[in-house]
Amino acid sequence: xxxxxGPRVHRQGARLAVVSANQALARLVAGNERFVEGRARxxxxxxxxxxxxxxxxxxxxxxxxxxxxxxxxxxxxxxGFGELFIVRVAGxxxxxxxxxxxxxxxxxxxxxxxxxxxxxxxxAVKAAIARKYHGxxxxxxxxxxxxxxxxxxxxxxxxxxxxDRLEAAVEANVRWxxxxxxxxxxxxxxxxxxxxKLVGAIVELKTGKVRFLxxxxxxS
Length: 220
Known about the structure:
The model is unreliable at 1-15 (pLDDT under 50). The protein is of the alpha/beta class. It contains 8 helices and 7 strands, in the order ββααβαβαβααααββ.
């Protein structure tokens, strides 16, 4: 799945600059800080930028995020067109289609940084909790989606109130998605090589701040 070929590059004007996974992560952190502080740099897109991007894309990071309308990655990270390769699906789940998209990002776009981006109050995670703990019934296709989330909720601490349980479940779901990526044969190989970086993060809805999870290597 994760099979980048050589160092990541990003177009800056007429030249190509190498962008490592750590540099890509630093850009996301800095962009989110600008967004939170009201200093966003990309309110509009110049026509010449779009014309250049029509010739090809070279995103420096791939993000799996939730479809929730309140958490658009391009705005949260204050980036322009062509900088991020984004997969958005309810609950930021890992499915066969999502895995194929991530493999495409690695093999053909050569991104070295992969981010699983969850968010506070995720409706899909909340529905998975209601189904797991309270027997809630959903329509068939929604139930299939929730089946992708439920395994990651097995280790939730007992006795939590509803708010704390949802908070813990959101983080557990992010880590579960990370684990599924790591446990593919390709994922294990690329992580061992140290070429690819995989991180988890959660968006705070009230502020837009992205909190990167500590100890991103711990996804068990």
